[in-house]
Amino acid sequence: MNKTQRKQQLRFRFGLAVVVLSLVILWIVITRVIGGNDGPRSVSSEQKQKDLYIAEQPTLDVELLTVNKYSRPGRPLEKVNGIVVHWTANPGTSAIQNRNYFEGLKDGSGTYASSHFIIGLDGEIVQCIPCNEIAFASNTRNDDTIAIECCTEDDTGKFNGNTYESLLHLVTWLMGRYNLTTEDVIRHYDITGKDCPRYFVQNPDEWEKFKVDLQNYILLHGTDRNATETSETVSH
């Protein structure tokens, strides 16, 4: 290689270095503009979720229980700190059948049981107790949670597609109503160790997937919290 060729090669390398350095500087400037002075940032699903809520109330069949000491004591639920998911443990039955079972307890069987909502196999949602009263569903968390019972087709406890979709809608709507996050959505099992809801207890990965589905449902269907909320027909 002669002297002229070496000079040309050095000039090429120098020019290439200048181009690379310019691109690096440009990238730093762009990412700082987008992400702020601390460098590039991404907005998490959790952060986006905090800015959204489900405004549309799911369709509810309000069939309130008679006030009685066994299934609807009429005691106030002064603060909602969580939502508890259950299964009926009564495969093949409908939401209204389970509601009527709770109603029948008033006649003095000695059993204490109820739920705020029951979701049926066709996705129907029956409300049994107003959201401002306690239900006998979640043991030590009766005083600060809303309970949702879900019907199943068999004793595996897996919710069918209709039940699952209604559960997503109902839970996310309640989350928005009471300013809760997915961390406030729990299983009956998480309170007592009971096999309830069975499928989510025996398949913990599916429970985690359900909580991700809640976040995705809010991201897909959510309304900005600054928007005007729709009117509600739910029994308080």
Automatic annotation (TrEMBL):
GO-annotated molecular function: N-acetylmuramoyl-L-alanine amidase activity
SMART domains: Ami_2
Annotated SUPFAM superfamilies: N-acetylmuramoyl-L-alanine amidase-like
Start and end residues of each N-acetylmuramoyl-L-alanine amidase domain: 70-198
EC nos: 3.5.1.28
Catalytic activity reported: Hydrolyzes the link between N-acetylmuramoyl residues and L-amino acid residues in certain cell-wall glycopeptides
InterPro entries: Amidase/PGRP_sf, Amidase_domain, NAMLAA_amidase_2
Gene3D superfamilies assigned: Peptidoglycan recognition protein-like (3.40.80.10)
Membrane-spanning intervals of the chain: 12-30
Pfam families cross-referenced by the UniProt entry: Amidase_2
Alphabetic keyword roster: Cell wall biogenesis/degradation, Hydrolase, Membrane, Transmembrane, Transmembrane helix
CDD domains named in the record: PGRP
GO annotation, biological process: cell wall organization; peptidoglycan catabolic process; peptidoglycan turnover
Enzyme class: hydrolase
Entry annotated with the keyword Transcription regulation: no
PANTHER family: N-ACETYLMURAMOYL-L-ALANINE AMIDASE AMID
The protein's name: N-acetylmuramoyl-L-alanine amidase
Species annotation: Agathobacter ruminis
